[in-house]
Structure formats: C-alpha cells, structure tokens
Amino acid sequence: MSGCAETRDVLLLGKGDILHQQVLASFPLCDVTEEDLTQNPQFCKLLATLTQYVDKTGLTLSLKTDLDKAEQKLQSQRRQWLRPESLYRGLQEMIQDHSVRKHKSTLPPDQNMFYETMEKCLLVANCVKLLDPSSTTHQDQPSVLGLTSQHVMELMPLEKNVTRMRQGLPRQLEKHLKEKCLSLLSYCQPESENESEGLKTVKLAHLSALLEKDKKRADKLEESCRENTVLLQRQTQLYLSELIRCIRLLQTLMLDHRLRVQTDLDRKKLDYFEGKCELVLQKIKTEMVEIQLETYTVATVTAHRKIREKLESERRACAAEKQGVELKLSSFQMLGEEFVALADEYCRLRREIEMKRWALRELTQFKDQ
C-alpha cells in the first residue's frame, strides 16, 4: 500500500520533463542534471518522493520546525541583548561627539560636567559588571586584585551631578538619536537634505518601514543571486559536459582523418625518398666518373696500354715456355723410375758444383784481401 501511495504521489507531481524540472527546482543545491535523472528513473522517483518530506535546503519538516523555533528564540534573545547594547553604544557615541566638539570649540561648563559625569558613570558601571559577572554567568568568580564592586562604586561622581545628568539624559539621548535617524534618512533618501524639519520628522515615522522594505528587497536580491548562482553552476556543469563531449567527438574525427591521410602521406614520403635515393645514386656515379677522368688522363691510358701489351707478350712467352717444360716433363716421366734416380743424382751433383763454386769464389776474395 505504501508503495502504491508513493507511486500515486509521484504521478501527481508530473511526468517526463515536467517531473525532472520539479525535482531540480525542489533540490537546487543538489549537483544533479536532467540527464542524470533521465538515466536513473528510480533515483528520480526517490527524489520526487523526498520533496514531500524535506525542503530546498535538505532539512526535514520536523527539523525545519525546530530550527525555526530556535531561530525565533535566538532573535528574542538578540533583541533583549540589543536594547541595552544599543543604549550603551549610543551613550558612547554621545561622549565621543562631545570630545570632538570640545577640541573644536569652547563649550559651556554645565555641558562639560554633564558628559564627564555620564562618562564616569558608564566607566564605573562597566567595571562593576566586569568585577561581578554572576548576573550573566550565574556563577561566582574570584575577584580581580581583591577589588569588589563596592570599591569601584566609591569612584562615582557626586550625587547631585548624577541626578542632574539623569534628568537631562533623556533629552540629550533623544536629540542624539534623532540626529542619527536624520543622517540615516539622508543616506536612504538624499533628496530629503533640502526639505524642512517638519517634513523630515514626518518621514522619520516611516523610516523603519522604509528600512524594512529595503531589507526585504536586499534579501530578495540575495535569494535571487543565490538561485542565479545555483543556476549558473548547473549551466556551467552542462556546458563543461557538452564541451567534453564535443572535444571527444573532435578527437575521434581528427583520428579518423589522420588515419585516412596517413596512407597518402606515407606513399608520398616513400616516393620522395625513392626519388632522393635515385638522385644520390646518380650523383655518386657522376662523382666516380669525374674521379676516373681526373685520374686516368690520355698519357696515363697510353702508358697503361703499352704496359698491358708488354705484360701480355711476357705472359704469352711464359705460357709457351711452360708448355715446353710440361712437354719435356711428360717425356721424362715416360722413361720410368730409373730416370728419376738419375735425375736426382744429377740434381745432387749440380748442388755440389754450386757449393764448390761458391767456396772457391769466397777463397779467391779472401786471398785478394
């Protein structure tokens, strides 16, 4: 039953793009795009169901109620604190303004006495508060240097001066606050500078409403700025995703184009290198021919031709001599082993004759010396 109820509630929100837009509007701080909701319908259904239990910031309704109550309590405490604090700061501003006026011009003695008394009273009250913080902290603390609030109260001005100051304080404070309100009115409405005091006083009665209106307008502009910021972030994310998709598509097109062009480019490079190689070979042959022409002149070629003819004739003579010796050797080999023994003996005798001739030649040279 609960599942049917959730489905019915989702159907009541809308379908398709309308549902996606409602979910995105209900969760502006969620980093989700419409494409994510389209790809994940169950997640979109979950978010659509959660819109009935949480607000735009992601808080549940009960937690939002508790937060509103805490906010109201905080505002009440803040207002209670702001009343005495604003009064104290107003008195401090009055004292500062008096100090400035006192340095610029001479003021009446009673006015000087009024502000001096007020300044001393504020200083004593502040010191008493610091020495006795039990009213705010609800606990006892050790005294500072052994001082107590009674010791500080002894520094209060004369009673008659304090009484006179208290009697004139509401009038002076009202005058000071009125001047501040008029300056604030001049800031909010510069055209009121030249208006009469009566008209300014009338406008002061509507100053709070004017400030409240400006505050609401500022809050509205801030909310609009926040929504525009969220919208800008979402649009930026969509833009980046589309940009990434376009970049990937461009990379794919570049790769395909490169693969198609690479074959033609390789073939052209091959033709270029073949032509360059052929040119280099022709240049090498040309250089070789030039070297041969520089090395072999007409005279050199004629001399080489004569040397070749002479060598050819000697080769032919040696070949004829070799042929005759081979014929003799073949005829000797036909005589048998007895001729071999005679040939060996003949060779031995020839060697002995040569040795004796050498020895005789040496002896003859030795005798001549």
Structure write-up:
It is a single chain. The protein is an all-alpha fold and 369 residues long. The protein has a domain at 215-306. Helix content is 85%, strand content 0%. The protein contains 13 helices and no strands. The protein starts with a helix and ends with a helix. Mean pLDDT is 79; it is low at 1-15.
Task: Throw out a few tags for this protein.
369 residues; mainly alpha
Query: Alpha-carbon distance between the termini?
Result: 151 Å
Task: Report the structural category.
Answer: mainly alpha
Q: Mean pLDDT, nearest integer?
A: 79
- The total count of helices amounts to 13
Order of helices and strands: HHHHHHHHHHHHH
Largest sheet: none
Shape: elongated
Percent range for helical residues? over 70%
Estimate what percentage of residues fall within beta strands.
Answer: under 5%
Describe what is shown at a glance.
The protein has 369 residues and is mostly helical.
What's the layout of helices and strands?
Blueprint: H1 2-13, H2 16-26, H3 34-39, H4 41-50, H5 61-104, H6 109-131, H7 134-137, H8 149-153, H9 159-188, H10 197-205, H11 207-295, H12 298-334, H13 337-368
Helix pairs in contact: 5-6, 6-9
